[in-house]
Amino acid sequence: AFIATDDIFYMIDGDRAACLDAETGKEVGEIRFPGATEKWEWMAMSDGRLYVLSGAGSRVPTQKALNTYDAWDWNQIRDPEYVKPGVPVSGGNTITAWDLKAKKVLWKHWEQTPIDSRGMAVGGGKVFFYGPEMSVGCLDAQYGNVLWRCTDEKIAPLIEQIGRAFIMSKKAAS
């Protein structure tokens, strides 16, 4: 995952984010959580904070595509191993909030079952997450408290449908 600001280009590199100068590409720093060794799988930036999903790592190994295109070959990512229903391609169990100015961990949230990195979003002071075994949840972005969790058995199959979108109403969340 990457994040670009006017000054810095952030790039996941194992258990850290490498910080590159946006003009030169030179590494000018890193963000690493003290004592943490989990592989970073996803990150987002909002309101002076970096939010990171980390864990055991991808279940599908990264491999060089054997094509001559300058972009993804969509047939390759339709491989059954890549889109196995109910199994995250990459993800983890830990969501961490990092204060970019103070350079410190603000909070950590751990889930017993895997969170799918494709089902993460940040907005409106909230961190949303999805995992096929626990469905959808929402954390307060400032403190990391669970605001709500929807474990309705009908939700996960809707999310897993290829090419379909689902909007959860307040009534479905509990």
Short description:
With 174 residues, the protein is mainly β. It is built from 1 helix and 12 strands; from the N terminus they run E-E-E-E-E-E-E-E-E-E-E-E-H. The strands form 3 sheets. The protein has a 4-stranded antiparallel β-sheet with strand order 1-2-3-4, with no helix packed on it.
Describe the structure.
The protein is mainly beta. Helix content is 3%, strand content 43%. It contains 1 helix and 12 strands, in the order E-E-E-E-E-E-E-E-E-E-E-E-H. The chain has one helix spanning 155-160, and strands at residues 2-4, 8-12, 17-21, 27-31, 39-46, 49-55, 91-99, 104-116, 121-123, 126-131, 135-140, 146-150. It has a 4-stranded antiparallel sheet, with no helix packed on it. Strand 2 (8-12) and strand 3 form a beta hairpin. The two termini are 31 Å apart. The model is unreliable at 164-174 (pLDDT under 50).
**Secondary structure: helix percent:** under 10%
Question: What is the total tally of β strands?
Answer: 12
Helix run count:
1
Shape assignment: elongated
Main sheet properties: 4 strands, antiparallel
Which consecutive residue ranges, at least 5 long each, have pLDDT under 50?
164-174
* Rg: 17 Å
What strand line-up does the widest sheet have? 1-2-3-4
Class computed from helices, strands and strand pairing:
mainly beta
Q: Kindly report the average pLDDT value.
A: 82
C-alpha termini separation:
31 Å
Could you state the order of secondary-structure elements as H and E?
EEEEEEEEEEEEH
Strand content: 35-45%
